What does this fold into?
Amino acid sequence: MRYDLRPLDGIRSIRTKLGLLVAVAIVVASVLAVIGTRLGVSPWATVPIAVAAALAVTQVLAKGMTSPLREMTLAAQRMAQGDYSQRVHASSRDEVGELARAFNRTADLRAPGRAGEPRRRGVEPWACRAARGTGADRAAGAAGR
It folds into this structure.
């Protein structure tokens, strides 16, 4: 698995992370603009460099913030094909991290041989319940035959 830089994982709110993202981008751009000005570099050269650096920092931080969403998308596509072995790296403590942990719990319940109801291709939900032996489901299964 590829490693994603996730320096904001300890922050509990996605809104706070986004605010920090904007603040860091502004600080990077401002510091580079001041350094460029003090070195006698024209603002026409300093500003584009500062903006490019701020965008690079933003890209790195945003990639770490959204990597669990990309992982969940890929895992959900695999689950749709019946592969419930996929899990998502859930290290952040914000809403996206909570979603990733819930996703993993759901995958654990849906995996064949687990406590949840195993769903396999071609098996109707009533057949799964009937196999577990509840009276109402047996009646529904018998009526459907």
Notes: The two ends are 47 Å apart (CA to CA). The longest helix spans residues 43-80.
